[in-house]
Structures are given as structure tokens and as C-alpha cells.
Amino acid sequence: MHILVLGAAGMIGRKLVGRLLADGQVGGRPISRLTLFDMVEPTAPGGSVPADTVAGDLAAAGQAAKLVADRPDLIFHLAAIVSGEAEADFEKGYRVNLDGTRELFEAIRLVGDGYRPRLVFTSSIAVFGAPFPPDGIHDEFHTTPLTSYGTQKAIGELLLADYSRRLFFDGIGIRLPTICVRPGKPNKAASGFFSGIIREPLNGQEAVLPVPETVRHWHASPRAAIGFLMHAASMDTARLGARRNLTMPGLCATVGEQIAALRRVAGDRVANLIRREPDETIIRIVQGWPETFSARRAEALGFRAERSFDEIIRVYVEDELGGRLPA
Amino acid sequence: MHILVLGAAGMIGRKLVGRLLADGQVGGRPISRLTLFDMVEPTAPGGSVPADTVAGDLAAAGQAAKLVADRPDLIFHLAAIVSGEAEADFEKGYRVNLDGTRELFEAIRLVGDGYRPRLVFTSSIAVFGAPFPPDGIHDEFHTTPLTSYGTQKAIGELLLADYSRRLFFDGIGIRLPTICVRPGKPNKAASGFFSGIIREPLNGQEAVLPVPETVRHWHASPRAAIGFLMHAASMDTARLGARRNLTMPGLCATVGEQIAALRRVAGDRVANLIRREPDETIIRIVQGWPETFSARRAEALGFRAERSFDEIIRVYVEDELGGRLPA
């Protein structure tokens, strides 16, 4: 099968391509070709599967049509301007996250002639906005985003469901939890500390915690996220009915529970590298974020996340540190 | 104040313009000018308020910018391709209902310079799709439309909330119940019988009932709908917070209750003009429609609908038949 990955140069995109090459197949069908697309040209993967890499602007006229002209059997649409940038640059966010998505969906529709690929779209828990139900966000809670990014993702979900209903493609939208532990350098995202307080100490560096330990949030590892994508690519979508967008399972943990897990996995010396430095701006932003979910539908459909924060930390140590804890 | 009405030639649009001229003011501010827009040129209203009538395509380049160039203080956006047509003509539905709405919102944003009109958008209960909660659709139920029309309205709601949050305009979206009793000729809409079984007998004609009397639905009169629009135009939107889209109150009635009300208001001879002729296609379509709602938020914010189907029938007799029942 021919697989198209949009957003292939991002953290999730690169890990997904690695998994596709390692598996060599999706749902029992061998992978014969990859097309990897992003705003910056993705790195060509090694291995025996032919892979084209393409840099471009998905919202530009004709770009999406070119990408689907060879009728890829499976499309992963991960491409997006992130939350902070979509909020800072209104026009760019709508152009990439809404127009880009719509151009892709339209290009697929206009191929016609029975073409109906599986399309996996990464949405986000940012489609939800406070106030939330006290017992967590259930599968029938309304989407009232409080950011332009969340709005664009919620619109993408609606389009995906309608295009799927009209049989233009076989779509599934997956709302990712906050991905933790994100590998790489610290970034300026307000949510950065959730990963930073684990990642920096495990790399022997101090981390700043800007919020109280009572803050609760919804996490899944990068490895779990790739698992969601692979399951969405191969599952029987007839089981979704008309409701094609799913909140993914995750792990609800307080910052205090994150730190206790780090202490259990890596010891006091590592955990003591976290410095408390409350930041009122971040505290206020985080108050509007979802704390916990009841993702029953996705669980019943076979999606699986970690069951403890210790496990999330061990995934990071295995996948990013070659299994080695700091001495 | 200068008021722009988009969709001014439709049934609701014409009644709204009549009410605006009769009132002469909105929320205590005198109306100084009207601009009436539709795909076909709206009829120029009589009266002392200057009114421009414009025919055009809201999605066409530059049309929306022209309409908002004079900075109307209040905009009613009622323009839409109806459900059946949006389903039959996919491209036309998205062009008018999504692109047209987005062009309007963008045109307002691009005026800039502190321009921030009140914008009232008519959405629909078609944003909801079965299966529904057994106790009715509450204010936090998710929007999973089962038509392209419902999808386009749900996207309009999301855009309205985001543009309002960004302070580009002061928006409010109102989800109208099925409007009953619609005046005029019978139409081919699957929902047509809800009005037809009341309207035709009151005009001395036979009506066909294609569904069982147990079918429940959610109704409001045209007069109530105009009341919703006027309240949305003048209310304090600070009370909405970030959640700018509201399910309007209505009356839940079975077809049997509709007929019993007709019998009470107009007598046996009129009610006996309803002929039962089950239509399996319509029965199946209607099964996917909402039956009842709990519209607590809108009620708490002062929106009011009829409290009995007898009242809905009396509104029709007063507003369309000059108060005269058939002899």
C-alpha cells in the first residue's frame, strides 16, 4: 500500500514513519511506497521502502491535488500550526489548519472514480473549553474551544465526519492527549513544563515547575500516540458509525503524581532537580485546560494508553535514552 | 442605527424586516437605515426608514466587503441554502453556507479600526444528530450533524464563537427549532407535514400525514423566531461568556398533540381534513431527528417560545389569516 504522511517532519510524524518502516505493513497489507510531506522537507528515511519527500504549503492552489493524484491508500493528516502560533497569527492558523485541511479533503473528493482512502486526522483535546463537567469530559460533551487552534481542529472534525458520511473518504479523527514526555529541547509552550519536569531531570538538568503540584492533566506518551495512529489506520471503521471523532484514552495525573513517579523510577537526586517557581500567567492559562476524560468509546474500540505515570517515564527512558537512567 | 439583513427575502427575513419597521428601534436605539440582501432582490419595504435592497452572492469575491463597508451596527445573518438542497448539491451548500459565512466574518474583521458590530446568526437544531439522550438534548450535548447543512451550521457556530472571542464582532448564534406553522404553499421538505397538517386544514384543504401520531418534535412559531432574533440583537452578550451559541426554547409536541390542539382551536370539521398516508421514507428520515430539548440556558437568558400547541396555532390564525377561522 501507498501511504501519504502530511506533517512528516514533526515529532509525531518522524516517529510514525519510523514505526511504519519497522512494521513494514499496516493491518496486514505490506507498505510499497511512502510520500512524506511537510512545510520543510522531511528527512528521507532509510530502509527498503521507496519514499518521496516533498516540501510545500498544503493550502496553496494545486498542492493537495498533486499529493493525492497517485491515490495513496492511507493518508495521515498530522500537519498543523501549533496552538500558540495559531493564536498569535490568526490568518496563518486559519490558512494552514482550516484551509489546508479543506484543500486536502476537497482534493480527495475531486479524484472521484471510486477513490476512497482511509484518512487519519489528528485532532486535539483543545477542541474542549472550560467549564468542564466535574467528573471529567465524556464522549458526548460539546466542543467549545477557547483558542483558534481548537476551533480549527473542531472544524476539521466536522468536515471529516461529513466527507466520510458522503463516502468521499473513510475518515477517523483522534483527539490526542497532551503528549508527555516530549523529547528534545524545552519550548515556550505553556504546557511545556509537563514534559520538562521529567525530561530535564532525566538529562541531569534543572527544571522549573511554574504551577502547584495539585494541577491535574491528561497525558499519553509519544509511543502511545503512534499506537493510536496505527490502530486508527487499520481498525474496522464501520464500528464508528457516523461519529468519526474520538477522544483518545490517556492517563490523568497531578503534577505531584508525576513527580512521585519520577522519584520512584529515577530516585531522589533526579526528582530534586525540579525547582518550584510559580508563574501566575501559566497558572491562569492552565486553569482553563481539561483535567480528565472518560474516553470509554475509544477504549471499547481498542485504543490503549499508559496506565501509570511510571510507565510514561519508562517509555521515555527506553525510547529516548536507550534505557539508561542517569547515574 | 444601521441594520444589515442577509437573507432578507426569505420567510423569516421578511417577517424580521416587518418587525424592525414596526418597532422603529432595537434595544432603544432608533433604526436609521436598513440594507436588505439576498440571492434574489428583496422587496423594498414601505415606511419612513431608508432601505437599500441588494441581490448578490455572499460568497463572491468582494460582495461581503461591500456590504459591511458602511459599518452596519447590527447584522442579521439568516442567509442559507436549506437542508435538502445542501444535501443534493454538495458544492453549492458549502459555497453558500460555509464560504458565504466565512467571507462575511472575514469582511467584518478586515474593516478593523475598532469596528465591532453585533452579529446574530441563525443556526439550527440540525447541528445535532442521533442517537440522542433519552431525556432530551441539553445545552452541553455535542454537535454531530448527519447532514451537510447541519455540518455547515455547526462550523458557522464555531467560527462565530472564535471571531467573537477575538473581538472581531459581538456574535450570538441561535439554533432555531422547526418553525411551525410556516405560512405559504406546501413544500417538498421532509419536515413539511408538521406545518401542513395545521395550515392546509385551516385553509379548508386536505393535508396528508405521512408519519404516526406518536412522532415527537420541537416547534416554535415564526413570531417566536422573530422574538428570538430581536432579543439576540439587543441582549447583554456579556452574559453569554465564551459560549455564544444557544439552543432556542421551543415546544415539544407529538403529532397527536398537534392534531388535538387543532381540534380544540378550529373544531372537528377542520381537524378531520387530515388524511393518514404513511410514507416509509419520511418515517425513516424523521427517526433521526431530535424530539425534545432542555433549552435552560436560553430560557435563563430571556428567550421565550410558545407554551402550548394551541398557542402556536392561534399565532398562525392571527398573523396569517387575519384572526379568522374557517366557517
TrEMBL record, chains A, B:
Pfam families tied to this protein: Epimerase (PF01370)
Q: Which GO terms describe its molecular function?
A: oxidoreductase activity
NAD-dependent epimerase/dehydratase domain residues are: 3-208
**Keywords, in A-Z order:** Carbohydrate metabolism, NADP
Task: Determine the domain of life of the protein's source.
Answer: Bacteria
InterPro entries on file:
DenD, Epimerase_deHydtase, NAD(P)-bd_dom_sf
**Could you tell me which PANTHER family the record lists for this protein?**
ADP-L-GLYCERO-D-MANNO-HEPTOSE-6-EPIMERASE, NUCLEOSIDE-DIPHOSPHATE-SUGAR EPIMERASE
Which protein is depicted?
SDR family oxidoreductase
Q: Which organism is it from?
A: Enterovirga aerilata
